Amino acid sequence: MTAIIFHIPHASNVIPPDAAASISIPAAEIEKELLVMTDHYTDLLFAGCVGPDDIVIRNPVSRLAVDVERFEDDADEPMSARGMGAVYMSRHDRTTLRGGLSNRDGLIERYYQPHHRRLAEAVASHQKRFGRAVILDCHSFPEYAQPYEPDQTLARPQICIGADGFHTPERMAQSLEKSYRQAGYEVARNTPFVGSVVPLEAYCRDKNVLSAMIELRRDTYMDERTGALRDDFWRIVETNNRSVAELRGDLNGA
User: Fold this and answer.
1) pLDDT at residue 204, rounded to an integer
2) What Å distances lie between residue 93 and 31, 33, 36, 69, 146, CA to CA?
3) Peptide bond into 192 cis (omega under 30)
4) What pTM was computed for the model?
């Protein structure tokens, strides 16, 4: 059976005190920002997919503390131009989240770098045991584009499969697309989000590190106004379970 590393970077709504100290908006506004920016329940939605040889890398802090899917150096990160590098200065509507930041290096050292070490260690462990590492980057996204997002396309698919030209074999992307389509979902590749996470040490260097992103549109499983799960959220859970199982089979021995 194909072993998988499940990467869950944005499910947490925990903002540690050292990260919260630099946020300059009231608590009620922070809660609103968390509602918009958190990939709610993605840890729960993929929990049933996890097998005995799999590894789950879940970021324990909110992306409002640090966003582990940005490049560490703002000079390398395109979203830093929108105030949303590894440590956000701006909100989803591009208004101010942090008026200033004196402890960026400390936040990076405490939350960002340990996360990436865990991911790199998981990849190294699977490569040693299985000869390769397979990453599924697990996310969700709003039904409607937010002001900070580069892709402002009005019509958004229910499922986005993110693929990287180097690290996502075509059979991997096609397997996921087929499974979600067969379950009745609208599926697109690299729309509205592109690519999938890979440790920097392996990026565009190691073909034995495979990675694909699964993005679930939030209205398929929750009420985006309140954060409450829909009564039929188990439909997407069952589809995730089946899609990942089929992916294992499609990659097994490949």
Assistant:
1) 97
2) 14, 9, 10, 19, 7
3) yes
4) 0.96
